[in-house]
């Protein structure tokens, strides 16, 4: 197969297809290797809601991304602004300023243009009304810097990118797992692929690895994230085993980033071990800022209102995993149940309802009911009543005098009917990965580019530490995918 492809892309999600489309538009003949069968393709991208964090300076910018916005929508919605400086500040703040500033700046500065480019490739964007804007005084107001999602969510995004690749002559091999890189002292020259029960060489002038992190690999999770992580449920693809990272490390790539960190959320306690495409991201439970969470001892253990959920949900999964029995219950009363996200209304949910707090506490499986009831009453007594509740802003309506405070959106739980939802930890993706340059070239242990090898997506190390601003993963995959594809073509042209 020597010389058949200029660029081989390992992976089949958002980052991989952005790399493939970028390489193709720069004149390359491209092959995409997807380990999954077609019906499970798309990596973690297929399991997302399709939200993409992007810098914009107002509704005029958003109209370029979403030309279908009507004048009525514009008049009835406060889209606000989310400047590059705000995006960069969020990247710093939530990662405790450990994010690589060069990579973060690249992500932020290219976010808008990259989404415009994706639109030119057939991806449609729409406002995230259902999850990111509440209606107050007759007007929707977006909050938390997250406004845009791909039409059709993650599955719609993957479908649009896959269709675009097919129309542009990009070859896609399903059920084709890359097992190792073909390389010598001059660099990378292709991939060994297991396909149809045989391992075959696929030669190319350059390779882009975009095959996700190691979140589906229970052995690696335990090794790098720590004890107990083998028990976490996997939100997404069962195929993200860390193969791309392993292949690169085997030829001397430099590991980089927060290898003990990951994106992990509150997830349906009785969900399957791996993601279910029929449910998608519906197992997540992200309306906790409007209620409280208690563990098996009946105690609260986290500030549910510390920040907008965009900035806390990706780290609270770890906290839930650390609780006795690796679970918690989210509790709400009827004052706020209309604010619960759609994912609380799916059929596959562990929910209890009650007309009294005593009855509710008794129904919480595996929880000390007496302690839980006392905890709810203590919380109710601590809620400040002098500040009005407003879900669109950090309203400062908190608690006073509790060991575990609630900083915002604190409402007494005293108006039946009551609802509670059981959650555990669901891991999304791992933060550790490979060190790359600003051209998305994979660097070796001396910090030099490995000729012919590029990377994008979850396995780019150094962007996320400890936590994550919601919607940044798909944007990062697209930005670095586009860069990697173009860089891979330049490398291929040099190798020709």
From TrEMBL:
Boundaries of each FAD-dependent oxidoreductase 2 FAD-binding domain copy? Answer: 6-471
**Which cofactors, if any, are listed as required?**
FAD
Question: Which InterPro entries did the record assign?
Answer: FAD-dep_OxRdtase_2_FAD-bd (IPR003953), FAD-oxidoreductase_2 (IPR050315), FAD/NAD-bd_sf (IPR036188), Succ_DH/fumarate_Rdtase_cat_sf (IPR027477)
Per UniProt, the keywords (alphabetical) are: FAD, Flavoprotein, Oxidoreductase
Any single Pfam family the record assigns to this protein: FAD_binding_2
- NCBIfam families referenced in this protein's UniProt entry, alphabetically: PRK08274.1
In Gene Ontology terms, what is one molecular function of this protein? oxidoreductase activity
Gene3D superfamilies documented for this protein? FAD/NAD(P)-binding domain, Succinate dehydrogenase/fumarate reductase flavoprotein, catalytic domain
Q: PANTHER family under this entry? A: FAD-DEPENDENT OXIDOREDUCTASE 2 FAD BINDING DOMAIN-CONTAINING PROTEIN, FUMARATE REDUCTASE
**Native species of this protein?**
Oceanibaculum indicum P24
SUPFAM superfamilies annotated for this entry?
A: FAD/NAD(P)-binding domain, Succinate dehydrogenase/fumarate reductase flavoprotein, catalytic domain
Keyword Nucleus in record: no
Protein's UniProt name: Tricarballylate dehydrogenase
């Amino acid at each position: 197969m020597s010389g058949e492809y200029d660029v081989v892309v390992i992976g089949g999600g958002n980052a991989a297809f952005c790399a493939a489309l970028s390489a193709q538009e720069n004149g390359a003949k491209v092959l995409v290797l997807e380990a999954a069968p077609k019906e499970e393709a798309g990596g973690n991208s297929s399991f997302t809601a399709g939200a993409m964090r992007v810098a914009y300076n107002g509704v005029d910018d958003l109209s370029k991304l979403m030309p279908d916005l009507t004048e009525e929508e514009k008049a009835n919605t406060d889209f606000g602004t989310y400047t590059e400086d705000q995006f960069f500040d969020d990247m710093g703040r939530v990662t405790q300023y450990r994010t690589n500033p060069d990579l973060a700046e690249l992500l932020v500065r290219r976010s808008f243009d990259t989404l415009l480019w994706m639109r030119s490739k057939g991806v449609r964007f729409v406002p995230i009304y259902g999850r990111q804007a509440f209606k107050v005084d007759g007007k929707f107001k977006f909050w938390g810097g997250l406004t845009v999602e791909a039409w059709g969510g993650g599955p719609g995004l993957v479908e649009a990118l896959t269709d675009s690749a097919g129309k542009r002559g990009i070859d896609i091999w399903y059920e084709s797992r890359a097992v190792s890189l073909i390389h010598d002292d001059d660099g990378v020259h292709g991939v060994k692929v297991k396909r149809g029960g045989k391992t075959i060489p696929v030669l190319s002038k350059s390779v882009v690895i975009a095959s996700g992190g190691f979140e589906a690999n229970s052995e690696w999770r335990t090794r790098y994230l720590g004890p107990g992580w083998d028990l976490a449920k996997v939100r997404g693809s069962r195929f993200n085993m860390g193969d791309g990272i392993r292949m690169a490390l085997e030829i001397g790539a430099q590991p980089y980033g927060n290898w003990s960190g990951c994106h992990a959320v509150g997830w349906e306690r009785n969900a399957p071990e791996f993601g279910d495409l029929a449910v998608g991201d519906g197992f997540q439970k992200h309306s906790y800022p409007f209620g409280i969470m208690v563990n098996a001892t009946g105690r609260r253990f986290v500030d549910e209102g510390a920040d907008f959920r965009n900035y806390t949900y990706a780290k609270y999964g770890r906290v839930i995993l650390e609780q006795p029995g690796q679970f918690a219950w989210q509790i709400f009363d009827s004052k706020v149940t209309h604010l619960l996200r759609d994912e609380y209304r799916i059929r596959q949910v562990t929910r209890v309802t009650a007309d009294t707090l005593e009855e509710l506490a008794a129904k919480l499986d595996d929880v000390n009911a007496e302690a839980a009831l006392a905890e709810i009453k203590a919380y109710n007594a601590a809620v400040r009543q002098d500040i009005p509740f407003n879900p669109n802003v950090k309203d400062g309506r908190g608690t006073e005098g509790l060991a575990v405070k609630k900083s915002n959106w604190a409402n007494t739980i005293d108006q039946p009917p009551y609802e509670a939802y059981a959650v555990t930890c669901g891991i999304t993706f791992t933060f550790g990965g490979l060190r790359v340059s600003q051209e998305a070239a994979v660097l070796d242990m001396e910090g030099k580019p490995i000729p012919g090898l590029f990377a994008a997506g979850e396995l780019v190390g150094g962007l996320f530490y400890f936590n994550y601003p919601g919607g940044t993963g798909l944007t990062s995959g697209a930005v670095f995918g586009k860069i990697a594809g173009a860089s891979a073509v330049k490398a291929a042209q040099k190798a020709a």
